[in-house]
Amino acid sequence: MATTTRTTAARSGTSTILLKSVMALTGLIFVGYVLAHMYGNLKIFAGAEAFDDYAEHLRTLGEPLLPYAGLLWIIRVVLLASLLLHAYAAFSLWSRAGKARKSRYAVRTAGRALFTSKAMRWGGVALLAFVIFHLLHFTTNTIQVNGDFESPAQRVISSFEVWWAVLIYVVAVLALGLHLNHGIWGAGMTLGLNTSARAAAILKGIALVVALVVVVGFLAPPLAILLGVIP
Ligand code: HEM
Prior knowledge:
Blueprint: H1 2-41, H2 48-60, H3 70-102, H4 111-139, H5 152-159, H6 163-190, H7 197-226
Helix pairs in contact: 1-3, 1-6, 1-7, 2-5, 4-6, 6-7
The protein binds protoporphyrin IX containing FE.
The site of protoporphyrin IX containing FE has 22 residues, from helix 1, helix 3, helix 4, helix 5 and helix 6.
């Protein structure tokens, strides 16, 4: 009996580590993408033409080895696969934590830890909703906020002349910042990078700096457009 209980616990323990590792690795793929995307968006400060050139360049990169937009499609497939794995691992860990809480041996989670885990879960769901809205807005051009434009730069500039569109992006980017701050820290813990108090402090610092860079970098274009800094 004791052996069975130990074996079951060991098995579920292993898969919890596997799920957390999947979350950490796919999360780091998102961090790389988000940093590159944020940097690319800053091209809008160089003018509409520079931004459109950049958008076109993303599609011709890797030619003639790859077909037109080939690299973009590779990135899209990697992102979609990472998203499915990240969401699957998140929901599995979520339901496991729910079941554990109902167990009569459950130890009550401290208030702050419970708040953080709830914020990560619902923040993740909100980010997923935002990404769907964002793809319909800028990639497929299905949601047109302020007119129909062929040029990506014109779509960005016209959209962010509308205050509520800016508000949606501000809320989403702040949610992303909070998610990244805790997510990078959690990924570092899962990957065993907190080998000492100093290493843990450095990890916390890196998570905070990356989150701040992402928030400031993503918010600069919409706010500059709304305030008329970018004509
Ligand atoms: C103010 C903030 C943002 C702006 C101005 C912006 C702008 C854009 C634009 C213009 C495109 C279309 C690119 C093209 O088709 O050439 C795009 C695509 C995309 N953005 Fe953003 N973005 C912002 C924030 C974000 C955030 C926070 C995320 C992720 C959480 C994100 C994820 C994506 C993804 C996944 C695509 C699709 C790439 C593709 O498959 O073509 N973006 N964005």
